[in-house]
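step=encode ok
step=design start
structure_in=
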């Protein structure tokens, strides 16, 4: 602990944000860390707790007090080494992680927590700027060949970890560019894609092989893959979206899943030309985003940047309270009302409504809503004991973006062909990351359901560690 009174002496300072009216004019990142000296001051606020609950809140168990102390003392290279010991890609998490470590910070009990996410991003970007980030070259190869299917955060983490112990790793990506959700599901204004390319280039220098436009089960034979590789790691994500259910006329033009919309914009940002007949263009349109969460927020920010006439976000749940419920104590993630940067750019938020009808001709023109009333207190997951509370009404809607989460991984094709067991939610069933086929392993959203990028990184790391031990146990027989 570098400065015992730091949390008293210095207020929290967040990353710098460009003003909303300025940042909505482009798709570039608009959030930057403070100056190096200011970040050192923020690190001084860390109390070096005897039991650091920030570690508990972090899915990759980052050694947060340790790297904070190094930053405060100006020992940035030591801070970098400490950060990389637990997190393969802090340049991703430092940009897009919701930072569950921060509400778990002890300082948040009485004031604002340490700005951990900002410090993390500052460490890794200084390391790149100083030339400290170099490929970890492997001095030998084990002869074991591993195929990783999917180049999202879980797949990249697994590939890097397995490569570092000497296994020969090939990553297969069905799309024409690498990154999975990072590439196509996260808007550029949160994560510019050169950040992914920079890391992939390092991994290629380390010896990882990448193959794009390689859709296993379609243009890549599953049987050939099983014959060529000793082990196959599935890191394909959770891509089956939840739809509108039994609402009539849900197939009208103008209704899209969130990922269709976000993927198109990311491709266009990269220079891809989209045919006008398939392009989802929010310019001068009334856009309705159905569902909350980060993906819904990303749809809001993207719609505003495209020039939408209006953006409305609707949610079935009531607005969360300003303070925690008693059943949601520190250091748990706070279920409290929050406004994302995209929501702050200009959208109407409607809570406590259910959608009952899609209206229009061939194309959606309005969305019918039914107000509801929830019981007092916290709403539990899956709870539906609300009451009807008023007359139905319509809101104008030219584009409806469905952001209701994901059910599970895509079963058709690869998963069904392999005959893998699934759990009751439709995720791939595993025991210590091994599927019902001992040659096939799985990690990330495929086994856990849709979750955070940092959680997927951790899952890929843990699968690689478990597989490494399994391979050693087999060779010892």
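sequence_out=
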């Amino acid at each position: 602990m570098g400065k015992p009174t730091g949390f008293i002496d210095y207020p929290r300072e967040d990353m710098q944000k460009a003003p909303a009216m300025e940042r909505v004019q482009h798709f570039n990142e608009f959030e930057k860390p403070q100056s190096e000296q200011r970040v050192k001051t923020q690190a001084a606020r860390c109390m070096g707790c005897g039991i650091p609950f920030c570690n508990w809140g972090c899915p990759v168990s980052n050694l947060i007090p340790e790297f904070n102390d190094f930053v405060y003392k100006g020992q940035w290279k030591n801070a970098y080494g400490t950060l990389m010991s637990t997190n393969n890609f802090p340049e991703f998490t430092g940009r897009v992680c919701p930072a569950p470590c921060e509400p778990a910070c002890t300082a948040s009990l009485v004031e604002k927590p340490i700005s951990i996410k900002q410090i993390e991003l500052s460490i890794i970007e200084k390391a790149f700027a100083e030339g400290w980030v170099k490929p970890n070259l492997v001095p030998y190869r084990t002869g074991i060949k591993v195929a990783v299917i999917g180049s999202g955060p879980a797949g990249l983490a697994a590939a890097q970890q397995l490569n570092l112990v000497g296994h020969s790793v090939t990553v297969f990506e069905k799309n024409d560019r690498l990154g999975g959700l990072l590439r196509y599901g996260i808007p550029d204004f949160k994560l510019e894609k050169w950040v992914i390319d920079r890391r992939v280039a390092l991994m290629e220098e380390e010896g990882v092989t990448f193959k794009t436009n390689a859709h296993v089960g379609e243009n890549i034979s599953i049987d050939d893959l099983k014959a060529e590789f000793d082990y196959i790691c599935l890191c394909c994500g959770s891509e089956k979206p939840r739809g509108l259910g039994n609402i009539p006329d849900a197939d009208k033009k103008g209704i899209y899943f969130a990922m269709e919309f976000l993927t198109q914009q990311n491709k266009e940002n990269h220079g891809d030309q989209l045919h006008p007949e398939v392009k989802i263009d929010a310019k001068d349109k009334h856009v309705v985003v159905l569902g909350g969460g980060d993906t819904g927020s990303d749809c809001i920010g993207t719609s505003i940047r495209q020039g939408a006439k209006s953006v409305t976000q609707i949610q079935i749940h009531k607005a969360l309270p300003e303070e925690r419920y008693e059943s949601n104590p520190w250091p748990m993630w706070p279920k409290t009302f929050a406004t994302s940067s995209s929501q702050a750019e200009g959208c109407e938020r409607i809570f406590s409504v259910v959608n009952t009808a899609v209206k229009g001709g061939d194309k959606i023109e309005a969305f019918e809503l039914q107000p509801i009333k929830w019981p007092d207190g916290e709403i539990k997951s899956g709870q539906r004991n609300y009451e009807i509370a008023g007359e139905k009404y319509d809101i104008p809607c030219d584009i409806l973006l469905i952001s209701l989460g994901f059910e599970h991984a895509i079963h058709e094709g690869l998963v069904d062909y392999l005959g893998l067991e699934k759990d009751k939610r439709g995720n791939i069933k595993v025991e210590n990351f091994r599927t019902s086929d001992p040659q096939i392993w799985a990690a990330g959203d495929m086994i856990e359901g849709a979750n955070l990028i940092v959680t997927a990184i951790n899952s890929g790391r843990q699968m690689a560690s478990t597989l490494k031990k399994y391979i050693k146990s087999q060779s010892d027989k």
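step=design ok
step=annotate ok -> The two ends are 47 Å apart (CA to CA).
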